[in-house]
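W.,

You were right to be curious about this one. When I first looked at the sequence I had no strong expectations either way, so I just let the prediction run and decided to look at it fresh. Below is the sequence, 398 residues in total, followed by the output.
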Amino acid sequence: MIWFVAALIGLAAVAWGFRFAGQAVTGNAPKFRDMPYGVAYGYVLGAAVLAWLVWAYMQGRSDDQAIANKFFFLRIAIEGFIIFAIAAWLFRLLGRSVGTARSKKLFRSMPLTASFGILTILIYAIFAIFAGLIAPYGQEQIIPGVAANIIPGGDPELGGNPDFPLGTDQIGRDILSRLIYGAQNTVGIAFATTVLAFLLGGTLGFLAATLGGWLDQLLSRAVDVLMAIPSLIFALLLMTIASVWAPELGIPLTVFMVVIIAVIDSTRVYRLARAVGQNIVVMDYIEAAKLRGEGLGYLVFKEILPNATAPLLAEFGLRFCFVFLTIAALSFLGVGIQPPLADWGTMVRDLGGFVNFAQFAPMAATAPLLAAGAIALLTVAVNFVVDWMLHKSSGLKE
């Protein structure tokens, strides 16, 4: 604790010296003359963190295995960040050179974070759609003659196998294949659930905004009641009940999960659609359409929906993230996507015991982190794209 306080004091002194030196060297230029002390401290702190990351990365590549193990995951994170940043930059560069005039213009105004997000989503979509062609083994296939709990990395000296670069799980299934099929199951089901939530919540929200009256009050109060219950606890309770009904009715539990999560999340979509719709129905062009004798369907789909596309698209990305994480959480708790289907939440639960070996064999501990990393990476990517879409729809300029 003492060294931490001393480091903060030292950085404070360096920040003051940095601002003073900048004023002296540049002849009291406005950039340094008007620089707040907090900004100077931020520059120094950022430089210190960057220097520490470089030092930690070099420690992670040390010949001393004990030291390298301590910084193993940090080294992997730094290398992954650099690789993804380069890939996003190249993807944006390609988008600026190839495509239609509209797509080129879009890529020219696209920040690197949005480029990374779109590239990541495309990769996930490819794996999800073509999982059967890409995966070397089936998602439930127990490979004969292959040991269980093979460590990722493919190094035989550390307990790996070159034929299984990401190792095998506790019953001898290929983790790489299950990760690929997990994209098809987890992401595909989350996308279908989000679409269903938007169809339900968006339709009811626009109807409430357009018709008003008793229908608006009835739907809004029902939504308020559902939103008052914590969504994950409510979903867990309903899924526990559905797990009893599913075998008796002969309906897969996954179908119950899709309907339950869609209904719960449709309440958030309803609130947004109703709020946006109420701002649109008072516009002059809506009144003109009513005077022309246009029906309810025309008003909703031809007038309200096209003018509500931007906020709804942004909300779709956020809802997808929440649905995706909810499905992973339910699967982790054992009531979501059921075996033998591959699911990232279930993989984190089943492989979680490997984390106990992180101090002695870092590669063994990466097994559960692969599925957790896949969940986190897609969530971050979608949020990057949503932030960019919100920025564009707001009309703000760089």
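Here's what jumped out at me. The chain has two domains: 2-60, 175-394. And, maybe more interesting for your project: The longest helix spans residues 175-211.

Coffee later to discuss?

I.
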